[in-house]
Design goal:
single chain, 165 residues, alpha/beta, Rossmann fold, six-stranded parallel sheet, 6 strands, 37% helix, 17% strand
Length: 165
């Protein structure tokens, strides 16, 4: 059963509707198991979301989608999170979303996707072509797409292919 993690900053209240849309889209995929957690140690009082218990918990997910505040052009929170994680994220699926718009939006998304690529993750980006801010509909579609790709990857891994010579 594919497991996805939607990770958002506890204080990123503006990201909450988009995180909910990603969650809804991902859960629409059969057998997908999705958790929403906060990046910080503080629980999100507004939505009762729990913090990620331990950084090593990242290893138990097949896909990770991060929410990045529009002002975090350097992707500081995502970079710091992945820097603290000592395990492998190779061949796990990664994606990101933000409330930003225009050129700043692209910079924020790449700031989150870049450390994922550095860790060998398979990237499934929110489409960059839309100059407007990410909509809940776009995030819902992205959540479904990420869950679909996670399903394909985990299914392929479950089959042991042998070379026939």
């Amino acid at each position: 059963m594919p497991k996805l993690l939607v990770l958002v900053p506890a204080r990123g209240i503006e990201l909450a509707p988009l995180a909910d849309a990603v969650l809804e889209g991902a859960r629409s995929v059969r057998f997908a198991e999705v958790d929403v957690r906060t990046l910080d140690d503080a629980a999100d009082a507004t939505s009762n979301r729990k913090p990620l218990a331990a950084i090593d918990d990242l290893a138990s997910y097949d896909g990770i989608v991060v929410g990045v505040p529009a002002g975090d052009v350097d992707g500081t929170a995502v970079r710091e999170t992945f820097a603290r994680f000592g395990g492998s994220l190779a061949n796990k699926v990664g994606s990101a979303f933000t409330t930003g718009s225009g050129a700043g939006r692209t910079a924020v998304l790449w700031s989150a996707l870049s450390p994922m690529a550095d860790r060998g993750m398979i990237l499934v980006p929110l489409p960059f072509s839309d100059d407007g801010a990410a909509s809940t509909d776009a995030c819902r579609q992205m959540g479904k797409r990420v869950a679909d790709v996670v399903g394909w990857v985990t299914h392929a891994r479950s089959h042991h292919h042998h070379d026939h010579h």
